[in-house]
Amino acid sequence: xxxxxxxxxxxxxxxxxxxxxxxxxxxxxxxxxxxxxxxxxxxxxxxxxxxxxxxxxxxxxxxxxxxxxxxxxxxxxxxxxxxxxxxxxxxxxxxxxxxxxxxxxxxxxxxxxxxxxxxxxxxxxxxxxxxxxxxxxxxxxxxxxxxxxxxxxxxxxxxxxxxxxxxxxxxxxxxxxxxxxxxxxxxxxxxx
Length: 192
Hints:
This protein is mostly helical and 192 residues long.
């Protein structure tokens, strides 16, 4: 598929559009590094291509390049501040390192742009609430209340969020397994 994209790009009238499509295809094929490289090529041609910045942020998120995700957030936000997913990626990066205040700050910036009703922002808001509380019962309630935050057509994204929060929860249970009286075999089963 990559070769087909290169041939199409060579003969296509709008090379940047073909490059953007190639970046999407490579991302879908889990070729995140190559997808980011294509975005860099686009940005070399025109540094103001918003889609290239956001697609690179998405790829960097999957590659675990936290600082780039944050830097690309601010770059994208300066271009167009109404895209919810740029906030979601940045906030989730901060949550990876338990930087809850920084994640909350990103959410506040999204709220200032009046995009708090978008799924990505609602989902990250729940992740932040989950991270902020130390009460295990509250954590369970947040996981159980997730269906309240989905709308028509959001089932797939809900499943991803539920899995993400459940992962956090299982890690916490593992860390405190003696208090929960949980055997390691039960936790391993939770991931299978």
